[in-house]
Amino acid sequence: MVIGAGNIFRGVSGASQGMDRATADNMGMLGTVMNSLAMQDALEQIGIPTRVMSAIPMASVCEAYIRRRAIRHLEKGRVVIFAAGTGNPYFTTDTAAVLRALEIEADVVFKATRVDGIYDRDPEKYADAVHYPVISYEQVLQGGIKVMDAAAISLAQNDQLPIVVFNLKKQGNILKAVQGQAVGSRVQSR
After folding, report:
1. Whole-model pTM?
2. Which of 91, 104, 106, 180 is deepest in the core (most CB within 10 A)?
């Protein structure tokens, strides 16, 4: 699981207001650690064993991200929450999600969001936005479709890692997604 921090701080927003971009992105990464700890607490309160692993080492708060240790936690049935993005400014949590998915050899990336899939433009602003149940990596990149940043899409494309985008707030969608049922939109090869 990779959790963002848009509710706390967005690096791009800070940079657009004159803040140094690297500093702003570092603040955003720290926000993802806070959200990850909150998610860990929520999961553990319902009996789900969880580990937070951060790309920015902070031993007194959570584990440092080590690929083999993450895989071992997963083998033991623990939920692993990957915090602090990639640990580098200029990379989004979307890129971190695809990167970590590839590193742990996941079968798919699930992106839970506010809308029910991928559209040609923002469906919250445009009632006539066209929904894509299935779309190729090339269509996303060439069409400038704002589902994930180009680095994340390109990385997924290189390894043919499918991406499923669905509405987090629609009850039952998470279960449907992990069960392989059609939900939201799917990015894949043509």
Report:
1. 0.93
2. 91
